[in-house]
Amino acid sequence: MPKKRRTFSTEFKKQVVALYESGKSRQSIVSEYELTASALDRWIAQFQQSGSFQAKDNRTPEEQELIELRKRNKQLEMEVDILKQAALIMGRK
Hints:
Elements: H1 10-21, H2 26-33, H3 37-50, H4 61-92
């Protein structure tokens, strides 16, 4: 039976990162709070980079631009499809 995915509050993440920054070893934090090492590393990196644990706050400008371009591309594709359908309808008349 797979483990249920746990979620952690922002306050908890801040406290764990503060423990690490105050000198507590990474391994002791991981074992004491039953965390994965990768999760702790990700929280530390996110907090040091932007002070936030939200994915949108930790994106690079290139990643943000790529997301915006993909969104715009999808919108333009929808507009083209609508115009194609309109042309077909107008061609029948």
